[in-house]
TrEMBL record:
InterPro entries hit by this protein: HAD-like_sf, HAD-SF_hydro_IIB, HAD_sf
NCBIfam families: HAD-SF-IIB
GO cellular component: cytosol
Keywords assigned: Hydrolase
Signal peptide residue numbers: none
Protein's name according to its UniProt entry: HAD family hydrolase
Pfam family of the protein (one): Hydrolase_3
GO molecular function: magnesium ion binding; phosphatase activity
Disordered: region residues: 1-22
Organism name: Microbacterium hatanonis
Residue stretches in coiled coil: none
Length: 302
């Protein structure tokens, strides 16, 4: 298993132990990704996931959303389940109940560097603030096929409404305020965009791909080095007076890798690709086969 050093993943030599020690208390804290974990790519939410979250909380466990989405992008039918808090923008912001307890923002100079780089390389983007998103003028046209495909399979009214809401929010509304942004998602016009962005921005930024399956190597996410879900979880757990051994993280994508590593138990969804699964302690069933409920039941949360 890899370890986190300075907020970034590093892999141990082959055969090295993971370093995890499962000495948890009876009360657990679970962190759930949204896309591909709680909901599928048509925004559909399984009733079993609702039952699992509410059941675990009723038994005294804590359940947090831990998503790459900004708060403004989380579907209403997901937040309506009820959670103890939210880590959003891939670790950029943390809410504990109604209290905003942490944020990790890009300094204005870094934000300007990022925007200038995107514009110079024909890369469309969405900048994520705490309570809003700021799309570039051409992002909706570039990701239009995502909505076309998702809408074709969205037979659930709540899922269809969530898709329509996201699409509306992706319309350009002007520039983002300086110093309010924690993360950006991006979409280029060619399959090596991720490589161009990663190599061009340098070590100050943390650039990943694979979080939007349709885009492949033409899309990804950018945050400051050390800002990720795993770092935010470690920060929150310390605030709560709990230990990371008490934490369970469940996810399916590349922005979940640090979460899977830092939690006492990291669980990959059955629909995750093999690389993501390799970072996990175990694999549950898929998002279409009650994956969250299966994992919660296995670990005695419900």
């Amino acid at each position: 298993m890899p370890t986190i050093v300075g907020g970034m993943l590093q892999h141990p030599p082959d055969g090295a132990p993971s370093g995890k020690h499962h000495t948890m208390t009876s009360r657990r804290i679970a962190f759930l990704d949204v896309d591909g974990t709680l909901i599928d790519h048509q925004q559909r939410l399984a009733p079993s996931a609702i039952e699992a979250v509410r059941g675990a909380r009723a038994r005294g466990h804590l359940v947090y959303l831990c998503t790459g989405r900004a708060r403004a992008e989380i579907p209403d039918h997901v937040t309506a389940i009820g959670f103890d808090g939210v880590i959003s923008a891939g670790g950029g912001f943390t809410d504990r109940g109604d209290d905003h307890v942490a944020q990790h923002l890009m300094p204005p100079a870094d934000q300007e560097q990022l925007i200038s780089f995107f514009e110079a390389h024909d890369v469309e983007y969405i900048l994520q603030a705490y309570d809003d998103i700021y799309p570039s003028p051409g992002i909706l046209a570039r990701v239009r096929p995502i909505f076309d495909g998702a809408e074709a399979g969205a037979d659930d009214p709540a899922a269809a409404a969530a898709l329509a809401r996201v699409e509306t929010r992706m319309a350009y509304r002007g520039p983002a305020p300086a110093g309010a942004i924690a993360k950006a998602t991006f979409a280029g016009s060619h399959p090596d965009t991720f490589t161009v962005v990663r190599d061009g921005l340098g070590d100050r930024f943390h650039v990943i791909t694979g979080t939007i399956p349709y885009l492949g190597g033409s899309g990804g996410e950018v945050s400051l080095h050390g800002v990720n879900k795993g770092a935010a979880i470690a920060e929150l757990v310390a605030q709560l007076g709990m230990t990371l051994d008490d934490a369970i993280g469940i996810g399916d994508s590349y922005n979940d890798l640090e979460m899977l590593q830092v939690c006492g138990v990291g669980i990959a969804m059955g629909n995750a690709d093999d690389t993501v699964k390799s970072y996990a302690d175990e694999v549950t069933t898929s998002v279409h086969d009650d994956g969250v409920h299966t994992a919660f039941a296995r670990h005695g949360l419900i």
